[in-house]
Amino acid sequence: MTLKEIAAQAGVSTATVSYVLNGSARVSEETRRRIEKIVKDTGYRTNILAQSLRKNRTSLIGVVVEDVTVWHTAYVIDGINALAEEKGYHTILSNLRLLSKIESQFEHISKFQRDIDKAVDILLRMQVDGIIYVGMHDREIKDVLHDIDKPVVYCYCYTAGEGSSVRYSNEKAAYQMTKYFLERGHKDFAVIKGSKQSEPTFMRMRGIEHALREEGISLKEKNIIIGDWKYKETRVQVQEMLKRPDCPQAFIAMNDEMAVAVRDAAFEAGFRIPEDISLSGFDNADIVHYGQPKITTIDRPLHNMGYKSMELLVDQIENGYDGDVNITLPCRIVEGTSIKVMEEKEEQ
Amino acid sequence: MTLKEIAAQAGVSTATVSYVLNGSARVSEETRRRIEKIVKDTGYRTNILAQSLRKNRTSLIGVVVEDVTVWHTAYVIDGINALAEEKGYHTILSNLRLLSKIESQFEHISKFQRDIDKAVDILLRMQVDGIIYVGMHDREIKDVLHDIDKPVVYCYCYTAGEGSSVRYSNEKAAYQMTKYFLERGHKDFAVIKGSKQSEPTFMRMRGIEHALREEGISLKEKNIIIGDWKYKETRVQVQEMLKRPDCPQAFIAMNDEMAVAVRDAAFEAGFRIPEDISLSGFDNADIVHYGQPKITTIDRPLHNMGYKSMELLVDQIENGYDGDVNITLPCRIVEGTSIKVMEEKEEQ
DNA sequence: GTGAAAGCGCTAACAG
DNA sequence: CTGTTAGCGCTTTCAC
Question: How many Å apart are CA B145 and CA B131, to the nearest integer?
Fold first, then answer.
């Protein structure tokens, strides 16, 4: 069923049908009724392809994700969808599937960039109105998206060059968490870092050190463990640390998986949490919701990051480019019961 | 840059350009070269909208998901994408976001069906070649997709009426797991069920009972706990059960969250796993990978379900409808160290 | 109020 | 081998 056929059945021109469908011109009550009835009866559906071709506007947004199976991605997509629904946009998802690809072959950048180019090329051929690029790690991306004359927003990553972006602040979040410990009287810290090269590791470390410096506390080198984001590596090293007579008392882990490892190692060694050892995680992953005690952690604004990204993009599509906008959203501490309130604090 | 402009620059007709772009007709080596050079130099990109409009075929697949944030969804999407990439299709994602919607308002079916209809309507307007519907719970769906003259495949759910579907077998998986216990000499079972009305609960129970019946073992009513899929409910009830003198020894939990609850309750009560109590989970969720001992669980073929769904759909798109196909994929036991091998078994 | 007609960018007979 | 031409389904001036 096409608009033309509707017109024929109603005995009017295609223009008239188009007018009533879009309300783009005055049509007599009578003909409008007649046309609307036919539209309803026949179950006619506009061909958006034809419409978009003619209007040179698709209301389609290309969403390039580095990997859907990295769990934060789904929440970001959800946020994107939420605003898309409100604004009448639709998303076409391009999943680079980098997680499995990178594992199986080590040409990190080269093949990688090809995939991105190809994905973007196809989206552009589909005439998307704009593109959102969702990273799998929070990091700087050396302009992966080039020669695109459409609005682009980076989410869960950012670029040194051009392009708007939406992210959260690793540094601030870590600072916040460390403050949380300090306010409760903690002084003797251990930090479980992620992998050495990673940007989040670096930025979170900065936040921690910043907060400690403000209180005149310095972090001892031997109290820093590189857990590489993983359970096993962390557990083994923490076991060793707990044997030391000068073992620290407040553990800041840079993700929840490592925090759980600390908890397990502590129990194994006969320490109680939070009585003997205090502990925090990062990410608000599922795992912190099980086991005792609940680990205090950081919740990243995933949904909102997607939402804001889409907001930026839509604004640029509808109102034109007006300079890059870089948004950093705040994180939130999710309180568990893994951090003790020290008596000494009150006495000071 | 349009095909017409390319033609003008090359001094040929649009037809010729189209021929070289699609290889749809013989073109002299010389003009081909000339055209290809211009295409490359100008960075020309086909307008897929126009192309699809003309060909009446988009290579676009509509993927309707009940909720992206339900974690299995991402893996199913990943599987869909994998085949899509191979076959040259693209997916447009429609996220119903049912999880949050259902929680905030209780008009379960009514508003719900409206959302689906709207989502499908839009996909159809976009001229997708077919639709995959991805459920958030494995269950029967009372034909939510009607009046669609395009191929449809249900994934992670199925319909009593028409429509192809791809799922896994709850019953077989539970049977398999129970067999696994039996083969290791276990006889005294407890079952932690999911919520009462749920179909997976029902089917998994059938699988368990089937396996037990084969060995002439009957499950005592008082050894069945309704954990409602949740940690807390389960933990409390298991604590009670463990106090009984006739407390069972092999615990089959219908999901991993409840299995973790059993583990925690057991440790708390001074039982060792697997020495005193054996335990299995279901779903292969992240959480089973932490803590000790690793819980033996069931891995669902999520990626493959997406992949197969797409395979069915593409087949129907390219070769026409040839009856509904309903595929049930097998699950896989992921061995942890939570199930003891009983001595008695050897003696028998 | 309504219609005729041009055209969005592309493909595919059909001719030559 | 290459060009002419007629649309795919829709919107939108510009007339009347």
Answer: 10
Residue B55: the pLDDT is 95
Q: Cα(A123)–Cα(A110) distance, rounded to whole angstroms?
A: 20
pLDDT score recorded for residue A109: 61
Q: What is the mean pLDDT of residues A323-345?
A: 91
B289 — contact with chain A (CB < 8 Å)?
yes
Whether chain B has a CB inside 8 Å of the CB on A74: the answer is yes
Mean pLDDT of A289-297: 89
CA of B21 to C1' of C10 (A): 11
What strand order describes the sheet that includes B90-95? A326-329, A164-168, A152-155, A130-134, A60-65, A90-95, B90-95, B60-65, B130-134, B152-155, B164-168, B326-329
CA distances from A306 to A154, A303, A329, B134 (A): 10, 5, 11, 22
Between B129 and A197, the higher pLDDT residue: B129
Q: Is B213 exposed, middle or buried (0-12, 13-18, 19+ CB in 10 A)?
A: exposed
Q: Which of A92, A97, A127 sits opposite B49 (nearest CB)?
A: A127
Whether residue A147 is found in the same domain as residue A25:
no
Regions in chain B scoring below 50 on pLDDT: 106, 345-348
Residue B280 buriedness (CB in 10 A; 0-12 / 13-18 / 19+)? buried
Report the distance separating Cα A75 and Cα A69, nearest Å.
11
Whether A31 and A101 share a structural domain: no
CB contacts under 8 A, A 134-173 vs B, are 147
Of A290, A262, A257, the closest CA to residue A276 belongs to A262
Regarding whether B91 and B28 lie in a shared domain, the answer is no
For B283, the token pair is 């779903």
* Cα–Cα distance measured from residue A251 to residue B184, given in angstroms and rounded to the nearest whole number: 41
Test B53 with A49 for CB contact under 8 angstroms: yes
Q: Write down the mean pLDDT value for chain A.
A: 93
- Residues of B from 304 to 343 whose C-beta is within 7 A of strand D: which are they? none
Task: Return the pLDDT at A315.
Answer: 96
Which tokens in the block code for residue A123?
A: 């989206």
How many domains, chain B? 3
Print the domain residue range for B23.
Answer: 3-46
Q: Does the distance separating the beta carbons of B58 and A90 come in below 8 Å?
A: no
How close B210 comes to chain A (CA, Å)? Answer: 32
Spanning CA of B125 to C1' of C9, the rounded length in angstroms is: 20
Tally of CB atoms within 10 A around B342: 18
Question: Is B211 within a domain?
Answer: yes
Mean pLDDT score, A33-48: 96
> What is the dihedral angle through the alpha carbons of B246, B251, B255, B260, rounded to the nearest 10 degrees?
90
pLDDT band at A107 (very low <50, low <70, confident <90, very high): low
User: pLDDT of A112-137, one tens digit each?
Assistant: 888 899 999 999 999 999 999 999 98
Q: Are B294 and B255 in the same domain?
A: yes
Assess contact for B46 and B5: CB atoms under 8 A.
no
What's the pLDDT band for A10 if we cut at 50, 70, 90?
very high
The reply to whether the CB atom of residue A24 sits less than 7 A from any atom in nucleic acid chain D is yes
Taking CA atoms, what residue in A is nearest to B118? A85
Find the nucleotide nearest B4 (Cα to C1′): C9
Predicted local confidence at residue A100, as pLDDT: 80
A178 plus A249 within the same structural domain: yes
